[in-house]
Amino acid sequence: MAETAVQEKEPIIQFGKKERKLLTDPLNDNNPITVQVLGICSALAVTSLVYPSLVMAIAVTLVTAFSNLFTSMIRNYIPKQVRMIVQLVIIAALVTVVELILKYYNYPIYKQLSVYIGLIITNCIVMGRLEAFAMANKPWRSFLDGLGNGLGYGAILVIVGIIREIFGKGTLFAGSPIELKIIGPNAEYLVNTTESVLFGWYSNNNLMVLPAAAMFIIGILIWIQRSYNTKLVDVS
Amino acid sequence: MEFVNTFIKAAFIENLVLSYFLGMCSFLAVSKSVKTAFGLGLAVIFVLAITMPINWLISTYLLSEEGLFGMDLTFLRFILFIAVIASMVQLVEMVVEKYSPSLYSALGIFLPLITVNCAILGGSLFMISRELTLSNSVAFGLGGGFGWFLAIVALAAIREKMRYSNVPPALRGLGMAFILTGLMGIAFMSLMGIDPAAFVK
Questions:
Q1: Is the separation of the CB atoms in A117 and A95 below 8 Å?
Q2: Which of A48, A50, A224, B35 is the most buried (most CB within 10 A)?
Q3: SS3 category, A183
Q4: A121 to chain B, minimum CA–CA distance in Å?
Q5: What is the mean pLDDT of residues A215-225?
């Protein structure tokens, strides 16, 4: 009985075509980093290794999803003049929670990310989605939008992290429990078993460890994406 | 001397935007013309130089254990810092609107968005993690702002010239801006060897 009653006045949680689009759109057509140019600030500096970028991606996804959800819940009660402060307080509270959790469960990675965890507050993608989406949409939709944008952002972060770590350090997931040595004389996996040393001659490219490399890689990612997705090309 | 030292270090050697990637959003979005970049750069210098000492006072006298409340309130840091920054930005916005309406309309949404310019909050957080003194935090604010200003004006100038070049269509605009920023970052790295202490003497 109760279930049918909920069904009739449109369930709060539903997952149709529109909702799926909210999740998949930010992965390509409306990617936060390569298309909307939001949230580059606190991200690039952590991508020299995959593991911190993965942690960062998860943290940002949680913050965007839940800040979208909470803001959307109270959107009708926020006076327009003070909405920025209200949004910032919500975001700052969520980031504080994420920071404390990370500090408790994984102190080394917390140390490594240092100020960049706090800088999720000023990550434009969080604020941007609140302004552009959560202030005008229902909570469940906003939650999905936040989730999708966090994932789109995280995808770029992890791709850049993988490229930088493999070519800069020759490893993958360094610092995590499953550290792999991919390339170079000491490699243990894939092409480089002890019998066939294919890339043993490779020495690490120090450019990749520098922050500037992240800019080049993202620039090239944008180039590749826009070559395939021509509707994104800048006309001006 | 310490003051000049920190200023030079923050402006050139540890440039906020080119070596820490802070304030990237507005850096890439507002750098299409030199004039608006100039205005935004000045606003960032101002906000950074004002908020850093205020946040220093807050974290030393309110949030630390020796502070006014006698307990460790550092978990309130983010919320208080961002509140100070938001109110300062509001102030700058009102001043700019009154004295330079053309700049106000050119900056548009990016003026209130200085609040979420990572360089501002990042400056305050670096100040905490490096345990700077009050005068040093003023120098860090001024220097960091000046470095940000230099970087955005330089990028805007390059992008203005870039309009006459033959860039592949898919790389035009944003993609090129990223690669230019990377190149500028490498150029700024050549300043890293400078020891400001020796320089100032």
A1: yes
A2: A50
A3: coil
A4: 8
A5: 87
Contact B171 A123 (CB under 8 A): no
How far off is chain B from A213, nearest CA to CA, in Å?
Answer: 7
- Residue A93's Cβ-count burial label (10 Å; 0-12, 13-18, 19+) is middle
Q: How many CB atoms lie within 10 A of CB A17?
A: 7
Is A39 in Cβ contact with B25 (below 8 Å)?
yes
Give yes or no for a contact between B15 and B147, defined as CB atoms under 8 angstroms apart: yes
Contact B79 A210 (CB under 8 A): no
Q: Which two tokens stand for residue B4?
A: 């000049």
Say yes or no for a CB contact (<8 Å) between A115 and B126: yes
Q: Which residues contact A118 (CB under 8 A, 6 or more apart)?
A: A95, A99, B77, B78, B121, B125
B149/B113 Cα distance (integer angstroms): 16
Phi/psi at B51 (5° precision):
-75, -30
Most confident by average pLDDT, A206-210, B24-28, B105-109, B140-144: B140-144
Phi, psi for A181 (deg, rounded to 5): -105, 115
Contacts B75 to A, Cβ<8 Å: 96, 100
Given phi > 0 = left and psi -120 to 50 = alpha, else beta, which region is A220? alpha
ipTM over cut 0.85: no
